[in-house]
Design a protein that fits this description.
heterotrimer; A mainly alpha; B alpha/beta; C mainly alpha; A: mainly alpha; MetI-like fold; 10 helices; B: alpha/beta; 8 helices; disordered N terminus
Chain lengths: 250, 268, 270
C-alpha cells in the first residue's frame, strides 16, 4: 500500500469510529448515560476548555510533569551513564533494574503520602520515582550503543575527550536519547496521573476522577480526549524530531 | 565438449537422473516495470555430474536454483528432472542446501535431518535410522542429540547437507553453502563434499562466487553473465579425480580460473 | 600483597538486599525516622501474620482479577500482535497507530471503566486487560518479525504443506516471542490490577493498602505492600522457570538481549 493510500485508509477508519461513537448512543444501541454521543462530548470539551478551574488544574498538572521530569532526567541519566561506563557498577544494578520494572511502583504511593503529605511535592516525588528507572535504563543503553569501534577510531586520530563527546557520542546517541525522553515522558505523565487520581486536591487527574465519581460522563470523556490528545501530540512531536536526527540509522 | 574420463557411467547403483532446462526465461515485476532476470537458459546436466554455476552478483543464479528446486516458477521455459517436469518442491527428486544452514533451533541435529521424513509421515524407526545414516555420511556420527546452537558453522552446514540427502534424491542443489564459513573450513568442507559425492553418485548443481572453489569441485563450470543472466560459457574441468589440494597450485588450475575470470570480467 | 578480588555482583546485590532488610528494622526502632513513615520490619510481618486471613482473602480476589485480565491482555495481545506483525499490509496500516496510542496513560480511562462497570472486579479486569494489551501486542508484533524467512523457505523446499508450515515451523519459532509476551503481560496486569484496586475499590490487596493508609495504620499498609511484592516476584520466578524449561534450545546470549528488548519496547508504567 502506498503512503497516501495508508493515510486515507486510516482517516476512513477514524471516521468510522467517530461515526459509531455518535450513532450508537443516539439510536439507543448503547446507553447514552454511559457513553454520551460524540457531539455531546465535544460540546463538553469546548465548555471545559474555557473554565478557569480547568485551566488551573491543567497548570498544576503541567507543572508537576515538568518539575518531575526536570529532576528525573538528569539524575537518571547520571546513574545510567555511570552504570554503562563502570562495568562493575552496571553488573550489580542492571538485574535489579529489571525487577523494578515488574513490580507495581504505585504501591509506594502511600509512603510518599506519609512522608510528604498530600500536595505538590508528593506528586512530584512520586512521578520522579516512577520515571527515574526508565531514564537510568535508557541512558545506560544509549551509552552502550555507541559503537566501540567508532570510539577507537576517534581516539586513534588523537581526538580529545571533548571532541569525542561532541563528534562521536552526541550524534550517535541523539536519536536514542530522544526516544528515551519520549518514553520517559510517558512514564512521567502516567505517574503524575496516578498520584493525582489517588490522593490529591488539584490537577486534571483529580478533576476527571471527580467527574467520574459524580457520573458526569460528558465532561469525563472530554477530559480523557483532551489528555490523550496532549500525550499523543507530544509523542509525535518528539518522534518526528527523532526521525529527523536518525537519517543515518539503519 | 570434451568429456572427462571421470567415471560417470561406471559408478555402481548410480541414479540416472538428468537435469534439463529448456528455453528458460524469467521476468519479474520491479518498481519501475518489468525486469528481465534470466534470458534463454538452456542447460543439460548428465546424471552423476558435478556442475558449478558462477557469475557476478545479481546474475540470477540463485533465482535459477530456486526454479530448479521448484520453489519458483519461471516466466517461460521448462525444467525437467529425470525426464519429468518440476513445478513444485519435490525432495525425493531434488534436495536443496541453502547458504544459511536454516536448521531449526528447537530441533536437535538428528531431528533436523529427519524433518523431511516427518513431513512425509514416515514411521519413527525408519526416520531415525535413515537420519542417523546420513549424519554418519557427513561425519557427524554421535552429534545427533546436539542442538544447532552447540554446533560450529561447518557442522551446521553438514547437518544441512545430511538433511538434503535424507530422502536420497538423485539431484542435489547447493546455493553457496560454504559462503558463510571461513576459508579453512571452506576448503575442508569442499573436500568432504567431494568425498560424499563420490560415495553417493548424485548429480550436483552447486553455486558459488569463488572461482577457486568452482574449479576445485566441478566437472564442468557454467559461467553466467550479469543481469539479465545468460549462459556465457561452459568450461570442462579436466583435472583427475579424486581432487587434491596440490592441484590448486598447478598451471592447469590457474589457467582454468583465468579463463573463467576473463569471461565474467569482459562480458557486459 | 596480591590485590583483593572484588566480590561478585551477585554477592553485592545480596548484601544490598540484606542491608535493606536491616535498615528497615533499625531505622524506625532507632527513631531515625518515625514509625509512621516506616514501621519496623518485624512489626509489619507480625501484623501480616495476625491478619493473615484478611490478607489471604484479599489476595485471592486480586489473583482472580489478574488471571482473567491476563487472559484478555495476553490472549488478545498475542493474537492481534501476530496479525499486525505478520501481515505486512496490516502492519504498515496499524502499527504506527498503535504505537501512538501507547503514549496515552491508560490510567485516565479508569474512571470511565468504574462508571461503566462499577467498583467491583469487572472494572479492574477490564482496566488491567487493556493496560496489559498494548505492550504485549507491540512486543509480539515486533517478535513475530524475527522469524527467519529462511525457515519457511527451507521447509517449502522439503515439500511442506501449508498446515505443516504453520504447525511445524511458525508455531515453534514463535514460542520465545509468545513466552516473552506472557511474562510481560503478567507483570503488567498485576500492576494494572493493583493500581485500580488502590484507586477505587472495595476489595483486593490494593484496597487494603488504601484503606489502611487512610486510618494511618502503617504496619498494615506495609504488610499489604509486602504481599504485592511477593506476588510480583513469585510470578516472575515462575515464568522464568517455564521459559528456561521450554527454551532449553535457546542460546543464552539471545535470552539476555530479548530481556532488554522486552523491557524497552513495551514498558510497564506505575
Amino acid at each position: 500500500m502506498r503512503g497516501t493510500t495508508l493515510v486515507i485508509v486510516r482517516m476512513a477508519l477514524l471516521a468510522a469510529v467517530l461515526l459509531l461513537w455518535e450513532a450508537l448512543p443516539r439510536f439507543g444501541f448503547v446507553n447514552p448515560m454511559l457513553l454520551p454521543p460524540l457531539s455531546d462530548v465535544l460540546a463538553a470539551l469546548a465548555h471545559i476548555l474555557v473554565r478557569a478551574d480547568v485551566h488551573q488544574a491543567l497548570g498544576v498538572t503541567a507543572a508537576e510533569v515538568v518539575v518531575a521530569f526536570a529532576i528525573a532526567v538528569p539524575l537518571g541519566a547520571a546513574l545510567g551513564i555511570l552504570s554503562a561506563e563502570n562495568a562493575y557498577f552496571g553488573d550489580i544494578f542492571k538485574p535489579m533494574l529489571f525487577y523494578v520494572f515488574s513490580i507495581p511502583k504505585s504501591i509506594f504511593l502511600p509512603m510518599f503520602i506519609l512522608v510528604f503529605g498530600i500536595g505538590f511535592p508528593q506528586k512530584v516525588a512520586y512521578a520522579t520515582f516512577s520515571t527515574l528507572f526508565i531514564v537510568i535504563m535508557s541512558a545506560s543503553t544509549a551509552v552502550e550503543s555507541v559503537k566501540a569501534e567508532h570510539l577507537l577510531v576517534a581516539r586513534s586520530y588523537g581526538a580529545t575527550q571533548i571532541q569525542i563527546l561532541r563528534r562521536v557520542y552526541l550524534p550517535s546517541m541523539l536519536p536514542i536519547l530522544l526516544e528515551a525522553l519520549r518514553i520517559s515522558m510517558i512514564f512521567n505523565f502516567t505517574g503524575v496521573m496516578i498520584a493525582e487520581m489517588y490522593a490529591s486536591r488539584l490537577g486534571i487527574g483529580r478533576l476527571i476522577a471527580d467527574w467520574g465519581e459524580s457520573f458526569e460522563m460528558t465532561k469525563l470523556l472530554a477530559g480523557v480526549i483532551l489528555l490523550a490528545a496532549a500525550a499523543m501530540l507530544f509523542n509525535e512531536a518528539v518522534r518526528s524530531l527523532e526521525a529527523r536526527c536518525s537519517t543515518w540509522r539503519t | 565438449m570434451q568429456h572427462v574420463a571421470n567415471l560417470t557411467g561406471e559408478r555402481s547403483g548410480a541414479a540416472k537422473a538428468a537435469v534439463e532446462v529448456r528455453g528458460l526465461s524469467h521476468v519479474y515485476a520491479g518498481r519501475d516495470g518489468a525486469v528481465p532476470a534470466l534470458e534463454n537458459i538452456e542447460l543439460k546436466v548428465p546424471a552423476g555430474r558435478f556442475i558449478v554455476i558462477v557469475g557476478p552478483s545479481g546474475c540470477g543464479k540463485t533465482s535459477l536454483l530456486m526454479m530448479l528446486a521448484g520453489l519458483r516458477a519461471p516466466s517461460a521455459g521448462t525444467i525437467l528432472c529425470d525426464g519429468r517436469p518440476i513445478s513444485q518442491p519435490d525432495p525425493t527428486r531434488v534436495g536443496v542446501v541453502f547458504q544459511e544452514a536454516s536448521l531449526y533451533p528447537w530441533l536437535t541435529a538428528v531431528e533436523n535431518v529427519e524433518f523431511p521424513l516427518v513431513l512425509k509421515h514416515a514411521p519413527r524407526a525408519e526416520r531415525r535410522e535413515r537420519a542417523g545414516a546420513m549424519l554418519n555420511l557427513v561425519g557427524l556420527d554421535g552429534f545427533g542429540s546436539r542442538y544447532p546452537h552447540e554446533l560450529s558453522g561447518g557442522m551446521k552446514q553438514r547437518v544441512s547437507i545430511a538433511r538434503g540427502l535424507v530422502q536420497d534424491p538423485p539431484v542435489l542443489l547447493m546455493d553457496e553453502p560454504f559462503a558463510a564459513l571461513d576459508e579453512q573450513t571452506r576448503m575442508t568442507m569442499g573436500h568432504e563434499l567431494l568425498s560424499i559425492w563420490s560415495q553417493t553418485s548424485k548429480t550436483v548443481v552447486f553455486i558459488t562466487h569463488s572461482l577457486t572453489e568452482a574449479v576445485y569441485l566441478a566437472d564442468e563450470v557454467v559461467v553466467m553473465s550479469a543481469r539479465p543472466g545468460r549462459i556465457l560459457d561452459r568450461i570442462t574441468v579436466d583435472l583427475p579425480r579424486p581432487r587434491t589440494y596440490q592441484m590448486m597450485a598447478t598451471d592447469v588450475f590457474g589457467a582454468l580460473r583465468e579463463r573463467i575470470w576473463l569471461q565474467i570480467r569482459t562480458t557486459p | 600483597m596480591t590485590g583483593m578480588t572484588r566480590p561478585s555482583p551477585r554477592t553485592v546485590r545480596r548484601l544490598i538486599g540484606v542491608l535493606i532488610l536491616v535498615l528497615w528494622e533499625a531505622i524506625p526502632r532507632l527513631g531515625i525516622l518515625p514509625e509512621l513513615f516506616i514501621p519496623p520490619l518485624t512489626k509489619t510481618l507480625h501484623v501480616l501474620w495476625l491478619d493473615r486471613a484478611i490478607y489471604a482473602a484479599a489476595l485471592l480476589v486480586t489473583v482472580y482479577e489478574v488471571a482473567i485480565a491476563m487472559l484478555i491482555a495476553c490472549g488478545a495481545g498475542i493474537l492481534i500482535g501476530s496479525i499486525v506483525g505478520g501481515v505486512a499490509g496490516v502492519r504498515r496500516l496499524m502499527l504506527p497507530v498503535f504505537s501512538s496510542l501507547y503514549a496515552v496513560p491508560i490510567v485516565i480511562l479508569y474512571p470511565v471503566f468504574t462508571a461503566w462497570f462499577g467498583i467491583g472486579s469487572e472494572s479492574k479486569i477490564v482496566f488491567a486487560g487493556v493496560y496489559g494489551f498494548f505492550p504485549v501486542m507491540l512486543s509480539t508484533a515486533a517478535g513475530i518479525r524475527t522469524i527467519d524467512e529462511q525457515y519457511l523457505l527451507a521447509a517449502r523446499s522439503m515439500g511442506a504443506s501449508l498446515p505443516q508450515l504453520i504447525t511445524r515451523v511458525v508455531i515453534p519459532a514463535s514460542i520465545p516471542t509468545v513466552l516473552s509476551g506472557l511474562r510481560l503481560g503478567g507483570a503488567l496486569t498485576i500492576i494494572g490490577v493493583v493500581v485500580s484496586e488502590m484507586l477505587t475499590s472495595a476489595n483486593g490487596i490494593g484496597y487494603l493498602v488504601t484503606k489502611n493508609r487512610t486510618t494511618l495504620d502503617s504496619p498494615r499498609v506495609f504488610a499489604a505492600i509486602i504481599v504485592i511484592l511477593a506476588l510480583s516476584v513469585v510470578y516472575d520466578i515462575a515464568v522464568r522457570a517455564i521459559e528456561r524449561r521450554t527454551l532449553v534450545w535457546q542460546a543464552a546470549g539471545r535470552r539476555d538481549a530479548g530481556e532488554r528488548g522486552a523491557v524497552l519496547s513495551a514498558q510497564a508504567a506505575a
